[in-house]
Structure formats: C-alpha cells, structure tokens
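Protocol step 4 of 5: obtain the predicted structure for the target chain.
Materials: sequence only (see below). No template structures provided, no constraints applied. The aim of this step is simply to have a reference model before the mutagenesis design in step 5. Sequence pasted as it appears in the construct record:
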Amino acid sequence: MRRFFVTIAALALLTACETQTGGSGGARGAGGADGAGGMSSQQELVAKVGDRVFFDFNKHAIRADSQKTLQAQANWLKQRSSLSITIEGHCDERGTREYNLALGERRANAVKDYLVALGVPASRITTISYGEERPAALGHNESAWTQNRRGVTKVN
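Step 4 output (structure tokens):
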C-alpha cells in the first residue's frame, strides 16, 4: 500500500513540473514563449533589438549611440502591443546610495520618456531604480563603471 502512495506522489510531482515548464512559458504570461523558435519575449528583445543603453558619468541624458537601440525597442514594442515593460535604472558604485538611487530613477525615466516620444504608450512602461545595487560588471575601474551606468528594458 505504501508503494502505491509513493508512486502516486511521484506521478503528481512529475505532472506538476511538466505543467509549469511546458506550453507557452508557464506562469510568465505575456513574457512567455511567443512562437519565435521557443524564445521568450525577453530573449527575443535581447537577441534582435538589445535590452540596454548606457549613460555618461553623472548624466541621465540619452546618448546619440543609444537612440538607435531605443528606436528599435520602440518599433519592437509597437509590434507587440500586449507586452508591458519595466525600465531599470542603474549606476556605477561612485556616489552615495541615495544619490545613485535618484540618478538611476532619472535614467529609467529618461528611457521611458524617449520610448513614449517614439509612440510607446506610457501605460505599458514602469520604471525602477536599482542605483548601484545590481552591477553588471564587478570592478573598481572605468571599464566596470561604464557597463554599470545603464538603463535596461525588461519584458514583464
């Protein structure tokens, strides 16, 4: 009898795992698989368009080299009207925690404002600042700092 219950429990566990990972991305909803070769919307954004732009030291203005990426993001988002995004603002380690959180917020909002100006509805975009808390590159030099001064677009 005990073996019967163990077998039933194992089958239930396997069935639950299969349900979460199968289909169209499980619980991710709009961010799940979209038919692009099994790629999630986030993966497609990264691969086809790019998910980040970079900022100069102590600045939140959109750089000329970032405008092409944001134009491509706007076009990509307009073709996928059901998707919403979050723009993350990041900073390098220099400056106080409070200052970097505020600068990260200005960076995220600058990206949002640029996308809205290109026709993406503001209602589809949220922003968050991580300041210096989530570095993309570790190190205490210009190479690391350059990679950490960024705005990142995440598909919700």
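Step 4 remarks: The longest helix spans residues 97-117. Confidence is low (pLDDT under 50) at residues 1-35.
Proceed to step 5.
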